[in-house]
Amino acid sequence: MPQNVGLSYWFALNTLLVARTVKPYSPKPHVTPKLDPIPEPIKVLPKTFTPKTFTPEQPVSFKEKPLEKIIQPSLTLTKVTLPKEPKPEPLPKAPQVPTVHYHDYRLITTPEIVKEVINTDRVILHDKTVAKDSTLIYPLTVDTFSPNRVETTSLTFEDYLPAGYAFDKEKTQVDKNEMIYRITNKVVSSKNYEVINFGVYPEEINSYSYTKIAVSIALLINSKAADFVITECSSGQGMNLACNTLPGLLSAFLQNPQDAYLFGRINNGNVASLPLGLGFGWLGNLNLEYTLEKLFDGEFGSSFPPDVAERKIKETNRVKYFNKISKISLIEFLEQLEQEFIAKVLSKKDVIDHILKYSKDKELVNYLSNKIYCEYNC
Fold first, then answer.
1. Are 285 and 318 in contact (CB under 8 A)?
2. Which pLDDT does position 122 carry in this prediction?
3. CB 3.0 to 4.6 Å from 111: which of 35, 143, 316, 359, for a disulfide?
4. Single pTM value for the model
5. What is residue 4's predicted lDDT score, i.e. its pLDDT?
6. pLDDT tens profile 256-307
7. pLDDT by residue (tens digit) across 152-172?
8. For residues 170 and 206, is the Cβ–Cβ distance under 8 A?
9. 345/342 Cα distance (integer angstroms)
10. How far from chain centre, in Å, is Cα 348?
């Protein structure tokens, strides 16, 4: 409520008076609150506790149990007679040593070893004159060992080559050609690949070193008559190095399935070199099969692992570019080889015929055709 209500106001009028009209205070009417009615008082009825009637239990009576009669312990002593001193029996007389006579018989048998000299037609050439550079085979035959002999854990035969002969280690791996061809066909059977076997076959008269085979591989790849080549030598290393020095070839030395898988997915080369002598022991054929399976397990050059595929593919293409710009062309390379070497390479007729028929490089085909013509006519 405003203060000073009902007081008089005085003004000193020195000039024109302008004042605001002041309305008197009017109090608001009194409001009576509406309250809820007072509830009826709560009636509380006190509960009366009535104790239960106590009934005492019946008294318990006990009847004593008669005690058992205790038997007192007793001890009976028995007189023991002391033992008499034993009298040992006299020892028997020593037996007389018998006289034994025996005879030792030892039977010794020496299996006969026969070494023959035959040619590729299995004709025996013993004590006969043969043509120069012809292929000779020396099969070694050993008789069957006698039965009931002591178990043999190792056996060594020494077979010396005649004077003037040299051991051709590459030729000793020729018998594995059919195995490689069969396994390769097996592992790519589900793919649309054509597998061609260029040997070297056991019945071939000519023998080729791994460097000559490497040049044949370069001809197949550069002519585009083949997309990929599987090759081998005794260790695999020599063939791999020879291929990597030649134009257009990017080779890998594959010893196990891991090497093969990474080479196919990441490095994306065009030649696989396998070791078929060094380390090719027990179950070597299974390791070879598993290696070739992983080589063709997936798309070439798809990279691995997937999360770094883009970087891996970029680096692989850079390696291929290095390989291209650091080498001369195949024809320039062939021109610098001696004629005898080239002639031996051109004598691999199945390879040369395939290149001349399916090559997409006309310049290389013309070069090979002229070389072959000069070989027989110049």
1. no
2. 80
3. 143
4. 0.56
5. 56
6. 999 999 999 999 999 999 998 877 777 788 899 999 999 999 889 887 788 8
7. 777 676 666 666 656 555 555
8. no
9. 5
10. 37
pLDDT at 91: 86
* Burial of 157 (C-beta count, 10 Å sphere; 0-12/13-18/19+): exposed
Distance CA 373, CA 367 (A): 10
Per residue in 332-374, pLDDT (tens digit) is: 999 999 999 999 999 999 999 999 999 999 999 999 998 887 7
123/135 Cα distance (integer angstroms) = 12
User: Using 50, 70 and 90 to split pLDDT, how confident is the model at 133?
Assistant: low
Between CA 254 and CA 275 the distance in angstroms is 8
Bridge partners, 142 (sequence order): 113
> In the numeric block, which tokens belong to residue 223?
């002519």
Residue 252 β-bridge partners:
272
pLDDT band at 1 (very low <50, low <70, confident <90, very high): very low
